[in-house]
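Ticket reopened. Same input as before:
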Amino acid sequence: MSVLVVGSIALDDVKTPLAEQKALLGGSASYAAFAASFFGPVNLVGIVGRDFPQAHVDLLKSRGIDLAGLQIAEGKTFRWSGEYLWDLNTRETRSVALNVFETFRPELPEAYRSAPIILLANIAPDLQHRVLDQARQPRFVIADTMDLWINIAKERLLELLARVHMLILNDGEARQLTGETSLIRAGRKLRELGPRYVAVKKGEHGCLLFGDKGQFFSCPAYPLEDIHDPTGAGDTFAGGLAGFLAGRGGTEITFDDLRHAVVHGSALASFNVEAFSLDRLKSVTPEDLASRVAEFRRFVATD
Amino acid sequence: MSVLVVGSIALDDVKTPLAEQKALLGGSASYAAFAASFFGPVNLVGIVGRDFPQAHVDLLKSRGIDLAGLQIAEGKTFRWSGEYLWDLNTRETRSVALNVFETFRPELPEAYRSAPIILLANIAPDLQHRVLDQARQPRFVIADTMDLWINIAKERLLELLARVHMLILNDGEARQLTGETSLIRAGRKLRELGPRYVAVKKGEHGCLLFGDKGQFFSCPAYPLEDIHDPTGAGDTFAGGLAGFLAGRGGTEITFDDLRHAVVHGSALASFNVEAFSLDRLKSVTPEDLASRVAEFRRFVATD
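Engineering reply: fixed in the latest deploy. New output:
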């Protein structure tokens, strides 16, 4: 089963306390599609400018990612520049240039419209709606979001929640969107807004997964001594989760499937932060992933 | 197998955003001993003043806690007064009156000196040393501590680490004591200072347990919608953990035992924060505990 990923594709300038790199492949769709490609076919919808390096296109193609939905527009690719402070938990955006992304209107190639699993990676809720308008009865729709959309497009975001099966967001966003301090209350309240499942990401503290009838899963993070670049960790998590679900095949998605998907998404995210951009994920083999998942399970086993 | 608990016994005035209560039974040893009593015999060493209510003595006795080591001194019982801010994560100490605690010199009754498991609950490192000086080859010594001792008695604390098998402390304290931002690095570094095992408590995010040869366990917290009073959660965790280990009987303590102990300590701490003082723990039955542990395990299962 294939997964459709729609989101941003960017060239990132990233500065950490230890290093600085420019024009890295970034954006929510790049990370998410790459992570999803570990589990099966991926269809990508996004936009880049004429300056987008062929090497990045080749990298995505090398993973079997279908780029029929990639628009190459006149102008420059979306640029983001940010800096992480000493503990890598605080990020400051230095500049954003939307460039061709400003006029992005996602168009699903005919072959994508019946995608069973759709990941609406982090982009404006209006664009996420537009994707769903073109899709034919997807089996499972996952939406990611960010604080910006809660601030400037809350109504459209709330409308979107009624159309998706699962919402992924971080702890601060969950609190912001619900007005609840307790993440447990926030997660449950978000489910009442539409999505059957809600995943609340907590960075180094892992992730909380909420389902119906009190279903709940708390997943710690994989223990890392050093983080080199946190950019894209959440997108990698979401992409790995969506890809894992697609890779499971045609049966109905259960809470157990989602627990496994969260573990695999977390494992991929733990690789991702070990280097800039997709540099670490590029060299991860299926055996590396299986080995980290097995280690991960030992680290959280209570029996 | 019995567990020896040494620590503070206090009368607490606690204010939360919702309520305020005065002269509650508190102190590290009260919470820890009560939690340990779920698993077997407990010997308590502590000090109170003449004003200490008989009802509190009776409560501890009702749990089978041996009070031969409880000193009743002329003067007033240790008083602590604190307030929790709106999200209950921030605590402000309003006042502390050490009273009889200022002259506390722990004395182990002869029958306590061969205790196989010793929990040095949060008190000054000097007093923790004094307890170990009186003990005869304990099988497993656990020490809890707090930021105050890192600030004013760091040398004595470091000397203590070489004498204990396990250290329990919270995330901020682990960072403070090691100068490491990463809790994973901090936990491993603390092991190099002496203790074979280190548990780093993260409040609502659970606990990290470090052992030798890369042994590691990440335990999320039990999901609670509401927290009524966080006072004593860490002491309850430590006491439950120590009690569980004593209850396991005479075989050598393994990392697996500690994983189970962490789960039981966490479950008891999750009850504790549901009401002021020991009000919730008082009514918890062995069946309630078993049921919460089982639920807890389901919530974190990855298979």
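Chain A has a mean pLDDT of 96. The longest strand of chain A covers residues 65-73. Please confirm and we'll close it.
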